[in-house]
Design a protein that fits this description.
alpha+beta; three-stranded antiparallel sheet; 307 residues
């Protein structure tokens, strides 16, 4: 049923564009006879072009995993409070992007920084083509600004790592040997009521063959958190198989081994000038505030078009 629904969406989008193009041809005849204004035909042309580009973009996201929900993990780099604060700014940016594009968000794990910001956070983003949209965000993001934590108001450079992988559903079968995994339980951190902090509801799952470690503190139920951690492990293993077949996994991991200079995919400069530049596509924006408020589609689309 899911496959049928996806096919119907693609067909409906195609028929919509076909209808708009037919209407445009009719309007052009009226325009040639001076029966409608140039503004009217231009408006319809722009509407047709937007619909056509949307269909073309969706057709690029034709891999099985592209239509899946996305798991987004942000980890602060070296630099203590500065990097933790930058990691929280990135989380806010992706949350605002998701809200603007009507995606649903769940926070699965959050480890706050010692002074401010976050050390790491894991978010689940649900919606049509969530992973397809975000899959190009893997890598290191670099921020240059005047530090709000430096009394001398000096310029600081901070780094944070972003890791995206698809959330597998029941249509994907992945078998995990129970002897390959181990569990730890711990108390959930942060606010959330008395029972959250007194009971060991948070879990840490280790997968020995791959070295993957998954932490989850989404709910107050240890059993539910274990189920979710297993799903996240399967999702990462699935993503590893995808990347292995494309010989891209090693490139991603190599670029993330050191969250520092020379490994970033995008720079965000707030001082001495304002500029966001994607290193891979050379797309630049000077409206840094809009980008940090979730206006990311130009960067996301340009990466996908490049591929």
């Amino acid at each position: 049923m899911k496959l049928i629904q996806n096919e119907k969406k693609i067909l409906n989008d195609f028929y919509t564009v076909e209808s708009l193009i037919n209407d445009l041809e009719v309007l052009n005849e009226f325009y040639q006879k001076k029966e409608i204004s140039e503004q009217e035909i231009n408006n319809h042309y722009n509407k047709t072009l937007d619909s056509l580009e949307e269909v073309e973009f969706k057709m690029m996201l034709n891999k099985k995993e592209d239509s899946m929900s996305a798991i987004l993990q942000i980890t602060a780099g070296a630099g203590g409070t500065e990097s933790c604060d930058w990691a929280e700014m990135l989380m806010r940016m992706y949350l605002m992007w998701a809200e603007k594009n009507t995606f649903k968000i769940k926070e699965l794990n959050n480890q706050p920084g010692d002074v401010a910001g976050i050390k790491t956070v894991t978010l689940q983003i649900d919606g049509e083509y969530a992973f397809g949209w975000l899959k190009g965000e893997n890598g290191v993001h670099r921020l240059v600004r005047i530090s709000p934590f430096d009394s001398n108001a000096k310029r600081h450079t901070s780094f944070a790592s972003v890791y995206i992988y698809p959330l597998v559903d029941e249509s994907i079968e992945i078998i995990i040997n129970p002897s390959d995994i181990s569990w730890e339980t711990m108390r959930s951190g942060g606010a959330g009521g008395q029972s959250v902090n007194k009971l060991e509801t948070a879990v840490r799952l280790r997968h020995k063959p791959s070295g993957i470690v998954v932490e989850n503190s989404e709910t107050r139920s240890q059993l539910d958190n274990k189920d979710k951690a297993m799903q996240l492990l399967k999702s990462q293993l699935y993503e590893m198989e995808i990347q292995k077949s494309q010989e891209e996994r090693k490139k991603i991991e190599d670029s993330k081994k050191k969250i520092e200079w020379g490994s970033q995919i995008r720079n965000y400069v707030l001082h001495p000038y304002k500029l966001v530049k994607d290193i891979r596509t050379s797309i630049e924006r000077t409206d840094v505030e809009n980008v940090l408020n979730g206006d990311l589609n130009e960067f996301l689309k340009s990466y996908l078009l490049r591929d």
